[in-house]
């Protein structure tokens, strides 16, 4: 896998992660409306990520009720799922932060910001891993589907809904 990942992929992934971390996708049910059950920022993170996936050549689907979305590539009967979530736990008012949680800071060795480890960083890393394989013209003999939840940090309503309605 490493051999497929170029410096460009790394740079693009780093930029994409910063964009995603900048969205404060914390559950806010006081702002919930039809189509955004977990509040506007969770929906924004979902729509932003689906648009990114589309720009990378994946087929996307957004749950009309706004609970989850997915992005898929490849052909075949079987489905290989990559579970991700785009919501984060709150950061505002928390002590211990030396930088702004939703303003990512890139140092030589690390990226500081809410969600860089859980789960936005792993999500973007996996996405650009697949992008690197696509760029290397690797053929997928099964479908690879990124499944994006938006309520993992709270009640898992996103993935419960996915399980009710979508392919496992
Ligand atoms: Zn998590």
Set down the secondary structure blueprint.
Blueprint: H1 7-21, H2 40-55, E1 59-62, E2 68-73, E3 79-85, E4 105-106, E5 111-112, H3 120-135, E6 143-149, H4 157-165
Helix pairs in contact: 1-3
Question: What does it look like?
Answer:
The protein has 168 residues and is α+β, with helices and mostly antiparallel strands. The chain has one domain (2-165): 3-Layer(aba) Sandwich (Aminopeptidase). Helices cover 33% and strands 17% of the residues. The chain contains four helices and six strands; from the N terminus they run ααβββββαβα. The protein has helices spanning 7-21, 40-55, 120-135, 157-165, and strands spanning 59-62, 68-73, 79-85, 105-106, 111-112, 143-149. The protein has a four-stranded mixed beta sheet. It has a two-stranded antiparallel ribbon with strand order 4-5. Helix 1 (7-21) runs antiparallel to helix 3 (120-135). The longest helix has 16 residues, at 40-55. The radius of gyration is 16 Å and the shape is flat. The relative contact order is 0.24. The site of zinc ion (ZN) has 5 residues, from loops.
